[in-house]
Amino acid sequence: MTKRLKPIVIDTSIIVKWLNKEKELHIEQADRLFQDARGQKIELFAPELAKYETGNAILYKGISLPESKQSMVTLYTIPIKFVLWDEEVALETMKIAHETKITYCDASFLALAKKIKASLVTENPKHQKPTLRDINVIPLKDWKV
Fold it and tell me: What pTM does this model have?
């Protein structure tokens, strides 16, 4: 019988740290999270949307085109399971966005965590503000397996 790994949802704030560490905080914790995934202590998930947000974040870091392209190539080597939305999750995302007064995009990470019964690890303060009893949000600075 295969042991199920602990599911962890990560948001774009975490992914960007792995691709370009320039001007990023909590790199040591981000690296530990990455190693926990590589060592199969946890399983990483993110909504498909995270790929596009990551592209935007890398674009606006002001790095060269070759470096930006290399960052995007690296994105596809990270052991993240990107999840496509279905109607159920889209509706839950809208509910969370309304309840917490955050953007639909930000709420998508919380909705995914709720759906797969995972914790959300983030550096994004918008994700840390909502008080949703059924979603565990862990600030990156506090990451421990």
Answer: 0.90
Quote the domain boundaries for residue 26: 6-142
Q: Which two tokens stand for residue 57?
A: 């974040």
Amino acid at site 88: E
How far apart are the C-alpha atoms of 125 and 123, rounded to whole Å?
6
* Residue 1 is assigned to a structural domain of this protein: no
- Structure-token match 């159920």, residue found: 88
Q: Is position 23 within any domain?
A: yes
Domain count, the chain: 1
Residue 135 sits in a domain whose CATH number is 3.40.50.1010
With a cut of 90, say whether residue 1 has pLDDT above it: no
Q: What is the pLDDT of residues 27-68, one digit of tens each?
A: 999 999 999 999 989 999 999 999 999 999 999 988 999 999
The H or E element containing residue 120 is: strand 119-122
